[in-house]
Amino acid sequence: MMVYDLTPAERRVWNAYPRGQSVDFRAAPDEDASTGAGWGPERTLRASVLRELLISAPQEEGQIAGLKIAGARITGTLHLRYAVIEHPVGMHHCHFDRAPDLYGSRLRQLNLRGAVLPAINCDTLRVDGVLRMTECRVRGPVRLGGAQISGALFMDRAHLTAPNDTEPVLQLNQAAIGADLWAPGLQTHGEVKLSGADIAGSVNLHDAELNQPGGIVLNAETLTVAADVLLGCVQARGAIELRGARIAGRLALSHARLSNPGGTALHASSCTIGELWLRKGPPVDGILNLRRSQIELLTLEPEMVPNQVLLNNLSYTTLTPHEPTERRLPMLERDRDGYVPHAYEQLAGSYRRIGDDHAARLVQLAKQRRHRATLPWYARGWGHVQDATVGYGFRPLRAAGWLLSLLAIGSVAYALHDPRPLKASETPPFNPVFYTLDLLLPVISFGQENAFAPAGWAQWLSYLLIVTGWILATAVVAGVTRTLSRQ
Questions:
Q1: In angstroms, how far is CA 457 from the centroid of its own chain?
Q2: Which of 39, 321, 428, 434 has its CA 20 to 30 A from that of 202?
Q3: Domain ranges of the chain
Q4: Peptide bond into 321 cis (omega under 30)
């Protein structure tokens, strides 16, 4: 392209490029690029001119070239497919009439801050520095699948929409980012796809608004993050998919609002997470799925637990905040899989690790009661007996209470109505207390039971005490055996 074919606006950019000088067409620093469709020729640049400039413009000795323009209207399609550009490219606060095509290209650095675009194709893009899309407004898909970015990707306060839901609005699947994905305040209307991405820093979506009602707002299956995933104060209207993700630091959902009525709001199964925070927010509106995940620190406030959860084979080392069992157990009762023994064992283990053995026993007792409800009607009777007598072995003092109560009843009854001796000449003196103990204790004998024979109602009382003693002894043995087997 000859220089004399350029418009005055294009000539300014052409002359500034070899020295890396900035060309700012804006009338004011806060000018809105969304009005760029009406900008005149004095600030309009042809995409073909920019392509020629980036690929083959002459260099000036001793100068560092670079494209640095602001507030321009760019017409036509910027075709840079497979291009290798050694100098930084900055087109911030520009208005693109058509979607740029940077598929497979390699750039030193790309700055699109504040730009307005119909879409952008950057699949398999390679950036040796930073890709900045801060405050961008894109009306179509942002394709960055398989991109390799050595530095950070900035998308803070960007606004991304898609004309339909057939394609994700942001595609970062299989991308590799050498630093952070920095996108606080991001607003999306459509699916954000991060599946298979590898991020060496953190993912910051603090205060983001993700909208895809009835669909997936964030698809991050098998995502790998070396630091944190920050979703504090996020508003997600749709499902967050994190199945198989590996997050070394925190998955922070403090003050988050997760809503996907009738479906899964947070799917974090088969994940490995350093810390998961669900705190200070309203109840999750949808299903919480944490099946088969491994979490070092689980911060889960009961107020955020939804009506339906999936916790089978969830493993966690520490559970905070420390809450009484009556606030934790309802979560296990909401499991869609029904009775899940592993969930009770995990909760009991978390109490034991902090020295709260009483709470751990209450969880184990709740587990046995929940298990009893799953048995056939004819098998539940013995469970009720063990529960009433010794609390399935977790309340052994209850057996002593039963024993003392029955001992008191029998002692008073037989003291008022002495049973007749079987052999008066050989019978020891009658003792109502030891006679009652003889009836209650199946093994120990004090020589009273075989020496006296009650009659009438006292005889029926003796039968009741004998049967009750056997039931009590059997329940105690079953409870002790269960306790020893756990230890």
A1: 64
A2: 321
A3: 3-373, 392-486
A4: yes
DSSP 217-284: EEE-TT-EESS-EE-TT-EEEEEEE-TT-EEEEEEE-TT-EEEEEEEEEEE-TT-EEEEEEE-SSPPP
| Residue whose tokens read 């075709």 | 79
Termini Cα distance of the chain: 84
Show the tokens assigned to 160.
């991304």
Q: What is the dihedral of CA 75, 79, 83, 84, to 10 degrees?
A: 10
59: DSSP letter: P
What residues pair up with 90 in beta bridges, in sequence order?
68, 111
Q: Which residue has the tokens 């929409």?
A: 161
Contact indicator for 197, 219 with CB cutoff of 8 Å: no
Residues 6+ apart with CB under 8 A from 459: 453
Please, what are the averages of pLDDT over each run of 10 residues along the chain (487 residues)? 77 93 93 92 95 86 90 96 94 96 96 97 96 96 97 97 85 97 97 97 97 95 97 97 97 97 97 97 96 97 96 95 94 93 94 91 85 78 61 62 76 78 72 76 71 77 76 63 50
Q: For 481, how many CA atoms within 13 A lie in the half-sphere containing its CB?
A: 7
- The Cα 194–Cα 54 span in angstroms is 30
Q: Residue 75: which of 40, 31, 23 has the closest Cα?
A: 40
Burial class from Cβ neighbours inside 10 Å (0-12, 13-18, 19+) for residue 215 reads: middle
Would you call the peptide bond into 442 cis, given omega within 30 degrees of 0 as the criterion?
Answer: no
Q: String of b and e for 81-116 (b: at least 16 CB within 10 Å)? A: eebebebbbbbbbbbbbebbbbbbbbbbbbbbbbbb
Kindly report the backbone phi and psi dihedral angles of residue 428, in degrees, each rounded to the nearest multiple of 5, phi listed first: -70, 165
Residue 156: burial class (beta carbons within 10 Å; 0-12, 13-18, 19+)? buried
Contact 176, 198 (CB under 8 A): yes
b/e per residue 28-37 (b: at least 16 CB within 10 A): eeebebeebe
- What would the two tokens of residue 195 be? 């599946």
**Gap between the Cα atoms of 450 and 435, Å rounded:** 9
Beta-bridge partner residues of 297: 275, 318
> Which uninterrupted H or E stretch holds 294?
strand 294-300
Question: Could you give the CA distance from residue 23 to residue 43 in angstroms, rounded to a whole number?
Answer: 10
pTM: 0.82
Closest among 130, 83, 78, 138 to 105, alpha carbons compared: 83
* Cα–Cα distance, 363 to 324 (Å, whole number): 10
Residues near 463 by Cβ (< 8 Å), separated by ≥ 6? none
Query: Token pair for residue 444?
Result: 């120990």
Closest CA to 361 of 339, 343, 344: 344
**296: how many CB neighbours lie within 10 A of its CB?**
13
For residues 270 and 242, the answer to whether their CB atoms sit within 8 Å is: no
